[in-house]
Amino acid sequence: MKHNSFDIVVIGGGHAGVEAALIADHYELSVLLVTMDPKAVGRMSCNPAIGGLAKGQIVREIDVLGGLMAGLADKAGLQFKTLNKKKGRAVWSPRAQIDKRHYEKLVLKTLDVSNVVVVAGEVVSLVYDRAAIGGVVLRDQTRIRCKSVIVTAGTFLSGVIHIGERKIYAGRMGEERSEGLTEHLVSMGFTTGRLKTGTPPRLSKNTIDWDKMNLALGDENPTPFSYSTDNFSPPNEPCFTTNSNSLSHDVIQDNLEKSPMFSGEINGIGPRYCPSIEDKIHRFPDRDSHVLFLEPEWKNSDQIYLNGFSTSLPEDVQLKSLRQVSGLERVEFFRPGYAIEYDFFPPSQLKTTLESKNVSGLFFAGQMNGTSGYEEAAAQGLIAGINASLNIKSKESLVLTRDCSYIGVMIDDLITKDTLEPYRMFTSRAEHRLLLRCSNTVDRLFERANLCGSIDEKSKETFSVIINEKRKLIEGLARSIKPAEISVKRPPRQSSPAKDILKRNEVSIRDLPKKFTRIEGSLPTWIRDEALYDVESEIKYEGYIKRSLREIRSIKRSNEVLLANDLDYSQLKGLSSEAVEKLSKIRPENMGQAMRISGVKASDVSVLMVNLKRS
Ligand code: FAD
Questions:
Q1: Pocket perturbation via mutation, ligand 1, pick of 367, 382, 410 by most ligand atoms within 8 A of CB
Q2: pLDDT tens-digit map of 71-89
Q3: Which atom of ligand 1 is nearest to the CA of 339?
Q4: CA of 154 to the centre of ligand 1 (A)
């Protein structure tokens, strides 16, 4: 390392760290990325997939804000699928199986061609003076000066891996953990907690009886994540499913006390929404089967990821249980499943920009903020990187609100709610999800990205064309169609606005004459298709969208709606049991507070509203 002074130092090269470093580089600042193992940058610690319910929306948002993940996922994808297609358009979510090795290589290559300086090292303390950050100190006592620090330490802070009674002190299997940084941050006045997450075993491909598995392919006409992706024709590598059964459950049930989760060895709280197999069997004893997904970890991979079987049971119990499952009678492991406990920093200590409330120039992002997932981590890294850069340039910060993005929902949740378990994004966390469609990400975020300067000229051009063309399409739909111009089941008797005909259930925008669907400018076919489909959604759901916009205005007033201190939440029909428990315990003074309590979902808030109106 030639210099010991940088504008920004990023600690950690996971999904949060690389997004933070590369966006700061985009702002032409000098950036140092310190990471324990530079060969492991962008590593996918667990599942070989990116996107999924609500997470796919986050990946799109990352793309429109100038981030990396979407474009790389398109290049490293093995199979693409839009989830939730049977449900409303608001919750359609893209997901891709990813070649983990290829993804890591692409991250490395991107860093190589950037100006980011990457060094191997472990940060053990920070330099700060009068509540402002001044630099970092590495374990070998190297001191580096900087104007801003972004900490993205993931699961590495005092990490402990559990496999049955075995404990391994590590940040992730095969990687050193970070020691001392937690204590240093605590000495600076930060509070910390302990969380836990887990991963399933990796199976040897040749020991699986594939004929007994059910085939699961991706979409025939897949859609990419990134608006920079053109000529998209990814592979459609097969995945497979099988089911656990009562025999495999019995093995787990008989050995529950050997799981560190049940023996009391693990104190950290795990993700309720992504439970281990032992937790599922314990919590849902009536279910005699759970779906297991077999996913390749890379192209032609001999190593198979067993999605749905995250566990910290001893290796022999994992193996014995799995050998009861159809197709896995001869299975062998490359690696057993394990759980990991790590330190996190409750994100209520941060501002909406992800900067610390108490130490200026210090940002936290990713899993150490109590989240779980690559997408959540990458999004926070990007926002922290943008805001650290804007700070240094004395420009206005980027703040995303709940009504413009899933990222805004996540950050608002993180900083206003207690983090009692790893936070994972779901569509149900977004009360305005009809406005947060995957297909209107550009409409929602382009102006903000443009204002804060986080995107390049080419993206600006593409996004401007998309927005203009959609506006023209919507305006054009006010024009009338003559009955002779359209062939639909119930032809209109007289000339009617195209918009009114499109509102009918059985009519799609493709049924309209070409003059209503013409899109100018050079856009990839998939973006044209998406623009048409999104305009169709805008028209068909116009009423609901208007209602959502009214709700946004009323939610702003919701802090004025008082909730009685003696309200008996258990008597309100339709509230989830989690909401009853949390509301009864916290007793919010008003609706605004109630809405922001972790575990009270949008549907619970609606129930509260209805009951308040009634009473
Ligand atoms: P990480 O990817 O953990 O990266 C942290 C980086 O910080 C590393 O590069 C590390 O070297 C570096 N670092 C740490 N401390 C220091 C220091 N002091 N000095 C220098 N560098 C440092 N996500 C899912 O979506 N689904 C899952 O099922 C899932 N299961 C998981 C299971 C396990 C066992 C693990 C380990 C993770 C799992 N995750 C899962 C979480 C997912 O891996 C993370 O959410 C995501 O990788 C977090 O990204 P990050 O950038 O915050 O941190």
A1: 367
A2: 999 999 999 999 998 888 8
A3: 34
A4: 4
Q: What angle do CA 596, 427, 341 make, to 5 degrees?
A: 70
Q: How far is the CA of 367 from the centre of ligand 1 (A)?
A: 6
Protein residue whose Cα sits closest to atom 4 of ligand 1: 14
Q: 559 pLDDT exceeds 60?
A: no
Alpha carbon of 42 to ligand 1 centroid (Å): 9
pLDDT at 332: 97
**DSSP state at residue 80:** E
Closest residue by CA, ligand 1 atom 37: 45
Radius of gyration for the chain, computed over Cα atoms and rounded to the nearest angstrom: 25
For 252-302, how does the pLDDT look when each residue is reduced to its tens digit (9 = 90+)?
999 999 888 787 777 767 666 678 999 899 888 889 999 999 999 999 999
Q: How far apart are CA 189 and CA 184, in angstroms?
A: 9
What is the CB < 6 Å shell around ligand 1? 11-17, 34-37, 40, 45-47, 122-123, 152-156, 171-172, 178, 181, 197-199, 274, 340, 366-367, 372-374, 377
Closest ligand 1 atom to the C-alpha of 35?
21
- Strand order of the β-sheet with 333-335 is 214-216, 239-243, 291-296, 303-307, 202-204, 333-335
CA 44 – ligand 1 centroid, Å: 8
31: part of which helix (H) or strand (E)?
A: strand 31-35
> Atom 19, ligand 1: which residue's CA is nearest?
122
User: Which pLDDT score is estimated for 484?
Assistant: 86
Rounded to whole angstroms, the Cα distance separating 58 from 69 reads: 10
Q: What is the pLDDT of residues 298-332, one digit of tens each?
A: 999 999 999 999 999 999 999 999 999 999 999 99
Using DSSP, state whether 16 is helix, strand or coil: helix
Ligand 1 atom closest to Cα of 172?
A: 36
Least confident segment among 9-18, 294-303, 580-589:
580-589
Measured in degrees and rounded to the nearest 5, phi and psi for residue 223 equal: -115, 135
Residue 367 CB-density burial (10 A; 0-12 exposed, 13-18 middle, 19+ buried) = buried
Q: Cα separation of 218 and 530, whole Å?
A: 19
- Average pLDDT of the residues in 438-452: 97
Asked whether the beta carbons of 501 and 512 are under 8 A apart, the reply is: yes
For residues 191 and 346, give the distance between their C-alpha atoms in angstroms, rounded to a whole number: 7
Ligand 1 center to 383 CA (angstroms): 17
The helix (run of H) or strand (run of E) holding residue 545 is helix 542-556
Q: Which residues contact 169 (CB under 8 A, 6 or more apart)?
A: 159, 160, 161, 177
